[in-house]
Amino acid sequence: MRPEAQRHLNRIGQADLVVGIPTYGNAPTVGMVVQTVLDGVGTDLKDLRVVLINADAAISYGTRRAVADAAADAPIQVVIGGYTGTLGRGSAVRAILQAALDLDAHAVAIIDAHTTSITSDWIAALTLPILDGQIDLIMPRYHWSLPTGGLGDLFFYPLTRALWGRSLRQPGAGDCALSPGLAEVVAGHDVWETEVAGAGFEVWLSSVALTDDLNPQTRNRWRVGQVDLGEKSYQPRMIPSHFRKLFRQAVGTLLRQVDLRRAVWQSMPSIQPIPTFPGPPTTSPAEPIPIPDVTHLVDALMVGWAEHRALWKQILTPTNLAKIESLAVQPAEHFTFPPDLWARVVYDFAVVYNKGEWDPDRMVDSLLPLYQGRLASLWHDVAGLTSVGREGTVAAQAVEFETARDYLLGRWETYLPEPL
Fold this sequence. Notes:
By secondary structure, this protein is α/β, with parallel strands linked by helices. It has 16 helices and ten strands.
């Protein structure tokens, strides 16, 4: 944290629990999030010494004012300030983790400032398993509507499950809680000049926690769990360039882990469930998923074909490239992008991203239209189903990634980069 906030932390001295809210232009939603956190602390954690920390990117002072207004009568200490380092969500979380360590806190929770569905009982649900010493990292398990939940359904969840052998449903979730031991290791990693400092933080954090005990180069064994929190909704940034940046950073981070932690997936770990803690009473949405108009997603794939075909030719096998080309003749209303093809496409990108000579950002940018095409197909598949039916479809996609691990291994061992 910057000096003024650091001085405030020094005056506080110690805390049992730190609740951190990283912000980046979140004035419309952060006041409600802060008030909900305060309500949860006052109801369920009132016997603890809790400190609320807002680490803000300070692109405008509207967000800080919203936090200050919501916390004006807070019964707990509230620290509001900027942070040092690369501008990004990961850097903000790192500042919060370091502050929690400075306060000798027994647990630290990170709460997404975009969330509009947060309820006061989320705070205890996320933090009590950490405070009780049962777990080192707890991630939420959401009902996250499409299209915003699609990146977890189609990329983060199936790839994390197949690579690391752990069925963590939301490895890229913006809400989580950590033990001080894990927080210290995470804050001390030398990754803060990479995409991890931005939108890549959560998938990197999940990868660290899930693989340190499986990685021959480390000896840490972190206990990872998840908790049911019900519906996840949030106010997304509507600027397309923001999503492209998020996609590039988060997807690029996870693709990078394929090489850095290859000893884990090359052992073909068996798929293990993650302990799930009961959260607040929730009900799965009973209404069928609406039938969407996915024309814009299919169009994005077609535009991508024209823009990125030369690069795709260098990344995809001829068979996979031919199958992608065949998708172009499908009408939007009957568009189908097979899940087994998607798994192989992602693995093609994982291999060339790490072993090829191409610009990694350009590669991930070229994956985006392929993801949009697969998202269109997923949405068709789950339209008319309930959330339970969608979960079955997502699980089937994850199985395709698991089944294709031999394909990944074969490509990894035989790939030779072509000259640029």
